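User: Good morning. I'm curious how 1,6-di-O-phosphono-beta-D-fructofuranose would be positioned relative to this chain. Could you predict the structure with it bound?
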Amino acid sequence: MEERNNYNVKIETGDHGYVLEDIPHLTDYIPNLKTYPNPMRFNPAYSVVKQYFIDFDDTVPEKVVVQKNGPRGVHFRRAGPRQSVYFRSDQVRACVVTCGGLCPGLNTVIREIVCALHHMYGVTRVLGIDGGYRGFYSKNTITLTPKFVNDIHKRGGTVLGSSRGGHDKSKIVDSIQDRGINQVYIIGGDGTQKGAAVIYEEIRRRGIKAVVAGIPKTIDNDISVIDRSFGFDTAVEEAQRAINAAHVEAESAENGIGVVKLMGRYSGFIAMYATLASRDVDLCLIPESPFYLDGEGGLLQFVEKRLKENGHMVIVVAEGAGQELVAQSNSSAAKDASGNKLLKDVGLWLSDSIKAHFAKKKDFPITLKYIDPTYMIRAVPSNASDNIYCTLLAQSCVHGAMAGFTGFISGLVHGRHTYIPFSRIVDHHNKVVITDRMWARVLSSTNQPSFLGPKEVLEFQKVEEQRAMELMEGENYQSNITSTSGTRFECTGLLRCLSCG
Ligand SMILES: Nc1ncnc2c1ncn2[C@@H]1O[C@H](COP(=O)(O)OP(=O)(O)O)[C@@H](O)[C@H]1O
Ligand SMILES: O=P(O)(O)OC[C@H]1O[C@](O)(COP(=O)(O)O)[C@@H](O)[C@@H]1O
Ligand SMILES: [Mg+2]
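Assistant: Good morning! Here's the predicted structure, ligand included:
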């Protein structure tokens, strides 16, 4: 892990407990930079828009549910075009890179960065970095023009290619410097944005006039602070096809069971939302909610009961669920090139366990079909709603970069586009809070047991009580500040973590 300094932390406070978690700006380390009028002022498409430019003071609250006497809390800078920019259009040399796993919408984001730069700001020099971070120093670049990217949003994947591992700070920043790049757009998940933070810090240390702007990507929706990540909506929609297939197979057999594995390494959002959307699911398993197989109240007993009642059932399991159980039969600490733990196939393990259980019962034949659609879901192009979302994220990012902001990601917070400091999203995963209403809705829609014993219930209650106390004492905003400066509040997913919102 790289040693991190305080370049990312920029807190401003105001009246009534107002806190702005601000993002860095080029002028923080390069004084007296020249500004230019925003070229959008002269763009006929936008000339009719009243108050098109964002007021310098506009910020967006992290929490919208507040109490009468509570502090105003943490805010983020509102995204959008500024009156002045810190780059002359003909001096911009931008690059775009995509890293980590695939996600629907990557091509749309690439397309819209290129088009926003060209059409809004008159920037013509945009390079694509081939194959993720290592492409900065080991591959040739791709010239990105509006013509080149015209149709790419209709395709899945990323036209730039992607990879895990290969983040070499010095080589990457050398390459940025050698090529004269002054705007770096980095599309990727938590790992990628950790890498982006390191690149930003090195650029700043070298005193280079280059901005680093991130667009958060992850199909798992596990990036904290933001409302949702792009591609998530598409993934939930696509997952319906697999769940439908599992349901058809299960319904057509005697004691038919359909098992569907969906992505979600640390967070079960896809499984949870796909279950809620489908209404055909009898059991949803996610990493945040522990379960057990055998004995009274266990999963196998529930499967047997549901089969006796309905004659068939559908199980949706997130890939990160029950990993500690799978590891008991097959443990290994293997990691991928980025250092992410490689998961065991919980779907296969669960299917085998169910089959083995019923094989022992002579009078209870079952038919089980296991469907793993994970890579098929990840490879589709983004749907209409994600396409629009990707467009706005990309445009926000370009506005921020042109305005000289750096070390930020663009993200949606309560429906408003904002700029969020890297520090706020990289050390922390967004998780399903199983003591929240959404998970209760899943339990009530599937009518599945929660698998929580009295000990766990007590533990959850204690955590919830502590949280209520903290909120009463108005410590929530204090905790957020603490977490920004490095002392992280560890989110277990059991409680609504203050940083998760
Ligand atoms: N702590 C880190 N510091 C620097 N680079 C990192 C770090 N973690 C991951 N990366 C780099 O980010 C890229 C993508 O990370 P990965 O975890 O595979 O995907 P994602 O960004 O989707 O989470 C990889 O090239 C990896 O080397
Ligand atoms: O097999 P791969 O490509 O390494 O990807 C598997 C992982 O990628 C994901 O789809 C997304 O992970 P990232 O956001 O880290 O890219 C996970 O759900 C999954 O565990
Ligand atoms: Mg990741």
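The longest strand covers residues 256-262. Confidence is low (pLDDT under 50) at residues 1-5, 474-501.
Let me know if you'd like a different ligand tried.
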